[in-house]
Amino acid sequence: MADAQGTTKSLDEIRALFPALERTHNGYPVAYFDGPGGTQVPLSVVQAMGGYLLHHNANTHWVYPTSVETDALLDQSRLAAADFLNAKVSEVAFGNNMTTLTFHLARALGSWWGPGDEVVITDLDHHANVAPWKRLERERGITVRHAKVNLKT
Length: 153
Fold this sequence. Notes:
By secondary structure, the protein is mostly helical. The protein has helices spanning 11-15, 43-55, 65-85, 98-110, 131-140; strands at 24-25, 28-29, 118-122, 143-147. Helix content is 41%, strand content 9%. Strand 3 (118-122), helix 5 and strand 4 form a beta-alpha-beta unit. The longest helix has 21 residues, at 65-85.
């Protein structure tokens, strides 16, 4: 893998950037498989978040300096995410977490959906991508279909 400057890094060098990957439990390295519940981040992210919280933390869309700085940071972040995803800036949304975003998406779509509308989920989906659609099934009469996943194929 290469960093932003094009320098190739080994897997061990990349792992070393993530302090949580140094943890062990009963002598074994800890594995983190619950990505939607939160993910491990490199030290540089922890430092950037700490710097923001210490020096810039503010509500958005106000005229005082930390708010203006927060707005600029969000704009820069949205632009970087759009560039990375090859998307339009207007197509990038930030939220608290994937669970909250999926719930809001389901509620928004569900406001026009009803019997005859369908959603497909899989056995591998996290609960955060199952519960909002099952709720619409109960409340709005949509159909939730389950695609079975064969792990051998």
